UniProtKB/TrEMBL annotation:
Pfam families: PTS_EIIC (PF02378). The chain crosses the membrane at residues 28-49, 61-84, 104-124, 147-166, 186-206, 243-261, 281-303. NCBIfam families: PTS_IIC_fructo (TIGR01427). The lineage of its organism: Bacteria, Pseudomonadati, Pseudomonadota, Gammaproteobacteria, Vibrionales. Keywords: Cell membrane, Membrane, Phosphotransferase system, Sugar transport, Transmembrane, Transmembrane helix, Transport. It comes from Vibrio ponticus. GO terms for cellular component: plasma membrane. This is PTS mannose transporter subunit IIAB. It is found in: Cell inner membrane. Residues 1-309 form the PTS EIIC type-2 domain. One of its GO terms (biological process) is phosphoenolpyruvate-dependent sugar phosphotransferase system. One of its GO terms (molecular function) is protein-phosphocysteine-sugar phosphotransferase activity. Signal peptide: none annotated. It is a multi-pass membrane protein.
Length: 324
């Protein structure tokens, strides 16, 4: 139907039923993405202080979105929630009769109030300024050499595979779509899938170069890359951090090639199911293949068949104390 802005509200009343359905589905996706910040913050808190930190983290993540702090603000909210709840759990001594109320009411409510206060009056403005600064920086680079811009965004996305630097670059690039600036998003969506595909292909080419525990993980990494999930490459980065440099180089080169050769991705979709909607999709796929090839070769050089590092035992969640 020639529609390239399916998210626009005008399509809700389109004469074509299929366009209305696609518009509704886009709304469902937007609703799901709106959960990203609170869910990220909630589970960061959970990782630090267990279940009592989920509510403070999620509410802090919601507040981070309202304050315009982006993913960095959600990260801060999650860390605050986790450590505040952990501190309260070890310092507050409850009578035995109220012990059961601690983890389900007293600590979560107290943690939520403290997290919201700190986000609103201490951290919110600096984080929002940092987020706007990152967006302004990328915006200013788009007026110059777009290849350098793409390489920078691609390198950031490939650095920590879904971590704070990755998410800061991706969310900022997606925010610029509303301003009609597509190069950062094109670079980000290309770079998201290059590391997992490249590493996965490397395990298929020469399995014995990788620890036994990662040989099967390569298949999952390839599949996750094709559907647009960069986290599939995380086990390899944990086993050998040297691969991070390879990921950055491959992602930067692939992103620069895609943008430099004229590919344009106007949608926040990195998986294979969105490739045909990309302008100059052949160049887009070629850039993905080139970046993945760099990472595949680099992976075979970095991994030499040695055993991976032993796992570090996680710290147990804090326990609530009961006064006698």
């Amino acid at each position: 139907y020639g529609v390239d802005n399916i998210w626009d509200a005008s399509h809700a009343e389109s004469v074509h039923g299929l366009v209305q359905i696609f518009h509704d589905f886009d709304g469902f996706g937007g609703l799901a993405l709106s959960l990203m910040l609170p869910v990220v913050a909630g589970y960061i808190g959970f990782a630090i202080a267990n279940k009592p930190a989920i509510a403070p983290g999620m509410i802090g993540g919601l507040l981070a979105g309202k304050l315009g702090t982006g993913f960095l603000g959600a990260l801060a909210a999650g860390l605050l929630a986790g450590y505040i709840v952990k501190y309260l759990a070890t310092k507050i001594k409850l009578p035995k009769a109220l012990a059961s109320a601690g983890p389900i009411f007293i600590i979560p409510v107290g943690g939520t109030l403290l997290v919201c206060a700190l986000m609103s009056y201490v951290i919110g403005d600096p984080m929002a300024a940092l987020n706007r600064g990152l967006e302004t920086w990328l915006l200013s680079m788009s007026d110059g050499n777009k290849v350098i811009l793409a390489a920078v965004v691609g390198g950031m996305v490939g650095f920590d595979l879904g971590g704070p630097i990755n998410k800061a670059a991706v969310t900022t690039a997606m925010a610029l779509l509303a301003s009609g600036i597509y190069d950062p998003n094109t670079a980000a969506q290309v770079a998201i899938i290059i590391p997992p595909i490249g590493i996965g292909v490397a395990t298929l080419i020469w399995r014995t170069r990788f620890p036994e525990s990662l040989q099967e993980a390569g298949k999952a990494s390839t599949l996750m890359g094709l559907i647009g999930v960069s986290e599939g490459a995380i086990p390899f980065a944990l086993a050998n951090p040297k691969i991070i440099v390879v990921n950055v180089v491959g992602s930067a080169v692939g992103a620069a090639l895609a943008v430099g050769l004229g590919a344009v991705n106007k949608a926040p979709i990195s998986g294979f199911y969105g490739w045909l909607a990309v302008e100059n999709w052949f160049v887009y796929v070629l850039a993905i293949a080139a970046g993945s090839a760099i990472i595949a070769v680099g992976s075979l050089l970095v991994f030499n068949g040695e055993a991976s590092k032993p796992e570090v035992k996680k710290e147990s969640a804090p326990k609530f104390t009961v006064s006698r």
